[in-house]
Amino acid sequence: MVDDPGLKALAEAARLSPDNLPLRRHLAEQLLGKGYLADAEAEFRAALVLAPKDPDIMAGLAEAFVRQSSYGEALSALEPLLSEGGYPPRIGVLAARALLGEGDLHKAAFRYHEAVSRDPSVADPELAARLAAPPVERVPETPAAAPAEEPEEAAYLAPSAVTHEQSTAEVERSKFSFADVAGMEDVKEALRVKLLLPIQQPELFAAFGKRAGGGVLLYGPPGAGKTHLARAAAGELGAAFVTVGLADILDMYVGSSERNLRATFDLARRHRPCVLFFDEVDALAGRRSDMRQTANRQLVNQFLAELDGVDQSANEGVLVLAATNAPWYIDVAFRRPGRFDQLVFVPPPDAEARAAILRILCRDKPLAEVDFAAVAKVTEQFVGADLKGVVDRAVEAKLQESIRAGRPIPLSTRDLLTAAKAARPTSVREWMATARNYVMHANESGAWDELMPYIQRKW
Q1: Average of pLDDT values for 181-202?
Q2: Top-level class of domain 351-422
Q3: What is the predicted pLDDT for the residue at 142?
Q4: Distance between alpha carbon 129 and the CA centroid of its chain, in Å?
Q5: What is the CATH superfamily name and number for domain 167-345?
Q6: For residues 62 and 66, what is the distance between their CA atoms, to the nearest angstrom?
Q7: pTM for the structure as a whole
């Protein structure tokens, strides 16, 4: 409870003038600065209703989440900014803190160093120490070796002494299968036919000249379960799983990113059958026509070459999956047959799928009799990440009640409904609005026909 007289006066003023955005923003910032995190969260949410796209308010809400260790909610709050690019560097540092809290060291390091490279004043020494990696010695610049038109690239040439053909990606074994993915039967069937059956029934596919391997691009709104699907595909097959983040590939030195990409494909080939999964692939496979620097175009060319393989059987047994929230920014060459020739839309879950997702999320928790269908009904436009947030919020409230009672009290339908009504969907409406523009005005190839039934709904 707020006991600061000044804050109480501000809160009363905000109550009497609920549409005063500067007042609400000031109150939220003051609450955050003095450590009243739950109250600050509530005020930032109220301010966000008045200004849904204000980056300062979104950042404030995310910081309130981070300081409450609600890292997933922080990333959801920042997602609209991170997906657009060109976001303020301090947003990148905040995202790095949330990613580190989620345990994703690679992505956290990438976000942090990218932000600090744009604005050194946002550096956070404590965060940098937690993300510390062995320093890379930089070779002194040699101006004469650089073409006059591209001096900025010559300054980042990788010294041969520190170049290693070794990927930083790790090989793991997925514990999930398609049974752990609620709904999305059409998506799972597409993955079975394209990726799994050629390895499970090689003789049948060989009779038709089909090899085990290939690529599928999963796309859809943030939080819809694309990464979870990729892990489940690997678990269904019993194959090795290599997940590739931006930090595993991108490097400040010209040529190093291409070598990292080649090393990652070689790692997958050594562990075949293997599911090689590229998250946020639009950052690695963007349209070359939009790129200003030669080095970025060379990375796209290298990616295309690795997908093709050095010979016909180079990638046999390597199943390449990629996920993106922005498929329209990917170079059209990636959709050529033999590369990511199959685009699979991962839609927002319908009511039946939402009920199944909630059931899976709650299966390891003490439960009373729960009407998951009733909860699903009030969570229209929620994706899997949003539903996880609903369950987490309900669990936190139940934990406080259990602590007071001195015993575990099971979750009930009312608990989930209360949490659901306090939450808002994070991304579907905005994503569908963007998708509608491409389907209606930039779909000459028919690539986005699959989206037509969804955008015709009233989102």
Answers
A1: 79
A2: mainly alpha
A3: 38
A4: 24
A5: P-loop containing nucleotide triphosphate hydrolases (3.40.50.300)
A6: 6
A7: 0.60
